[in-house]
Structure formats: C-alpha cells, structure tokens
Design brief:
The chain has 341 residues and is α/β, with parallel strands linked by helices. Helix 7 crosses helix 8. The N terminus is likely disordered. Helix content is 35%, strand content 17%. It has an 8-stranded mixed sheet, sandwiched between helices. A two-stranded antiparallel sheet has the order 1-2. The protein has a single domain, classed as Alpha/Beta hydrolase fold, catalytic domain (Rossmann fold).
Length: 341
C-alpha cells in the first residue's frame, strides 16, 4: 500500500490456541521445537514492540494477542526463522485461506476481517511476509523476492500442506501472483484486492547510495508520512481513528531489523510480475474499493482482462483497504469464492 502511494515502484504438530505467549526455538536431537518463554504485558506477545500498548483499536489489540512465531526452515537443516503469524484454532474441510498483506505492513492489517473469516467457518492463516511484520530477523536473511517466495513456500510446506486460497492486497497481489506461478502446487485460487501488480519493481530506488536509502527509509517510518498514506488509503474515516490506525500500520517499523530489511528489499529490485500475469493458471477474484486513490480501478480492469480465468467485484464506499473498511463485504466475497467450484 505505501509503495503504491509513494510510487516506490494439516495443522502444525501442536495447535497453540488461546492467548499467545512468545515462543523461542530450542534445538534437540530430533531437530527444532517451539517452547514458551513467558508472555508480555496485557497478554501481548513479548516480542511485539512496546508501542502496541498505545493502540486503542480493540480489533488490533485482540489480533495482536494471537500473533505467534513458528519455526520455518530457510536454508538447510540448521537454519530457521521464527516467523510471525496468526494461526487458526480449527481445521476446516474447505481449502485454507492464507492472508498476505500490503507493502511494508503486517498481519494486523486483517484485524477486522480475520474474526469474520473464523465466524464463517474458514481455516484462515494471516502471515507476515519475510522482511515485514514481527518475525525474529536478528540475523537478517536476504529479503529479496526469491527469499520471500521460498520462506512462504517453506511455511506452507511445514504447517498448511494443502492448496490454499491466497489473498493478496495491494503489493501483496504481486506476492500472490509470483507465488502462484512459481509454486502452483500450493495455490488453488487467488483473491487480489486493489492489486498493485504493474509497477516494475523499485525502479531507481534500487540504485540509491545506501546513506540516501537509509535516510529515505527513516522518512518512510515517520508518523506524518504514514498518516498521509492512511488519508489516501481510507475513504473518509474520522481523524481520531486515522491517528490510531496509523499507529497500527507502523507498529512493525519498531522492530530492530526493520530498517535493514527494507533497504535489502529496495536494493534487490522488488516485485515485477507483469510477465507472470498471463501464466497464472488458478481462478482469480479481483476485489476493488470503489474510491481507491492509490491504485486505479483501470489497472484492475486491465488485470481482469489479462488473467486467464478471473472475475471482479467492486466494494462501494471503500478506498484502498476494503478488508479494513468494509470487512463483512470482503469476507463474504472471499468465503463464497473459497467454497465455489
């Protein structure tokens, strides 16, 4: 979302329900297991930035309490990343729904829609894409497109293990298309929300000197810029709510590795999936906010024409993030599409 606005180009072995506590990875002779290390204040995982306490939005606070970290193998048998996600409490007969997020965002983007997906009986996973969200990236891995794809595939292979309905909003649509084309066994259908898929990567940003890039990333974290992006993204919400939602949207920026991971992604060139669109074999649903000020609905129409099998639905009185503004409408569309043949 921010990139577009700024034109920057089966269940796991143990189902860990209830209030989430922080997890850490402990090695033993059989490999890796997840163990608890206590919890944070007010039920929040202790790995979340302390700024989570300032958030007022009850949906964000409730979902934040459910965030956990699961070990995901990234490079050989000895390398794991403790990867942040919201894990479903039950397994459904239908294909699981996997929720990605926008550029430089987190699983908290699904704070209002996630409970509704659970109410609808769907098995929903909200994942943090490698390099964003709340994973443990103290030893920073590469955060380029290939690494993000491999990490997502390893997560799917370890914990989900069935073809999914993959949901990608904004730049998350590029993540979803790239994954669907390169890992077709993992994806049954695609849902693309206000998709940002025609930017040719990060463009000239990939060529910036590092000192300039770090200065730009510091600006990207700033509250005024994030607030401005929210004003573009949402269709006329009250200022008080916008201020709070800005804090939700930038919470992950307080992670100690965030700046380095963002620079790593920028200089890698970012997502350029234009040539992959016509290679998509899965059925796709495009969802558009009627009043999107960040990604033109004309681009959504272009995508509708270029995808081999797709249809489109518009959400009235909604901007760039209809899954936040109009979650019931979006969840109804996702649930119906997930269950359709």
């Amino acid at each position: 979302m921010m990139m577009a606005g700024l034109k920057l180009g089966s269940l796991p072995p143990a189902v860990l329900g209830g209030v989430t506590v922080t997890k850490k990875c402990e090695r033993f002779s059989g490999g890796v297991r997840v163990v608890g290390d206590g919890g944070g204040v007010n039920g929040f995982p202790s790995f979340l930035p302390k700024e989570v306490e300032k958030i007022k939005d009850s949906f964000a606070r409730n979902l934040a309490r459910r965030i956990k970290r699961l070990p995901v193998q990234i490079d050989g048998s000895e390398s794991f990343i403790m990867s942040s996600c919201v894990q479903p409490l039950v397994q459904s007969d239908a294909n699981p729904v996997v929720l990605l997020h926008c550029f430089d965002s987190s699983c908290l983007e699904w704070r209002r829609a996630y409970p509704l997906l659970e109410e609808s009986g769907l098995e929903a996973w909200a994942l943090d894409v490698l390099g964003w969200g709340f994973s443990d990236l103290g030893r920073l891995p590469p955060c380029n497109v290939a690494s993000k794809r491999y990490h997502l595939y390893q997560f799917w292979k370890s914990y989900i293990k069935r073809p999914v309905v993959l949901v990608g909003p904004s730049l998350g649509a590029s993540v979803a298309i790239d994954f669907a084309v390169n890992c077709p066994d993992a994806v049954e259908k695609l849902v693309l929300i206000n998709p940002s898929v025609y930017a040719e990567g990060t463009g000239n940003l990939a060529k910036l000197p590092k000192v300039v890039a770090y200065a730009g990333v510091s600006l990207l974290k700033s509250f005024p810029l994030r607030l401005y992006a929210n004003l573009l993204a949402f269709d006329g919400i009250p200022l008080s709510k916008n201020l709070d939602w800005t804090n939700v949207g930038r919470l992950h920026c307080h992670m100690p590795w965030w700046k380095d991971a963002t620079i790593n992604f920028m200089v890698s060139g970012g997502y350029n999936v234009v040539s992959q669109i016509k290679q998509v074999k899965q059925k796709a649903l495009i969802i558009c906010g009627e009043n999107d000020k960040i990604v033109s609905n004309q681009l959504a129409m272009r995508l509708l024409c270029e995808l081999p099998v797709a249809r489109m639905q518009q959400i009235p009185d909604s901007g760039h993030l209809p899954h936040v503004e109009k979650p019931r409408r979006v969840v109804k569309l996702i649930a119906d599409f997930a269950r359709s043949r």
